[in-house]
Amino acid sequence: MADIELFTDGACSGNPGPGGWGVILRWRGTEKELCGGERGTTNNRMEMMAVIEGLRALKRPCTVDVYTDSQYVQKGITAWIHGWKKKGRLDPDSANPVANQDLWRTLDTLAAGHRITWHWVRGHAGHPENERADALARKGLKEALEARALGKIDVTAPRD
């Protein structure tokens, strides 16, 4: 299994509003940056999309250290999700679905394919990779704003 570091962040202008996500993937000293955005979203969704898109970029099962400044994501996937599953709150036909149910199901499925250690880092506190992921998220946000101004659909940077 490959050892990957995944640094993620999300951003939103208004909540809800246009948003962006950013990812830095690091493997053996090599880095890859990803970003994208949506015209109408929330900050929590962008935080989740950053992790989802980072995991989607992995071509095979890996040992992954995920770094996020979102306690919503970190606690959601490591603690809360177990209760949500037990109570059926992630089921598509749930009478009491959890917020962002679609993304939680996707994240849970993607995470199951890897050995992940989840790390929370304080946002905007000088953590170099978190600051870079934030800049990528803001780039994705800017692209979403430009797409909205041009009447285009949601944007996502290519993943190679």
Describe it for me?
- Helix content is 41%, strand content 31%.
- With 160 residues, the protein is α/β, with parallel strands linked by helices.
- It has a single domain (2-156), classed as Nucleotidyltransferase, domain 5 (2-Layer Sandwich), CATH 3.30.420.10.
- A 6-stranded mixed β-sheet has the order 5-4-1-2-3-6.
- It is globular, with a radius of gyration of 15 Å.
**Shape estimate:** globular
Poorly predicted sequence stretches spanning 5 or more consecutive residues? none
How confident overall, as mean pLDDT? 92
How much is the radius of gyration in Å? 15 Å
Count of spatially separate domains = 1
What does the secondary structure layout of this molecule look like, with pairings?
Elements: E1 2-12, E2 17-27, E3 30-41, H1 43-56, E4 62-68, H2 71-86, H3 101-112, E5 115-120, H4 128-150, E6 155-156
Helix pairs in contact: 1-3
Summarize the structure.
With 160 residues, the protein is α/β, with parallel strands linked by helices.
Task: List descriptors.
160 residues, alpha/beta, Nucleotidyltransferase, domain 5, 6-stranded mixed sheet, 6 strands
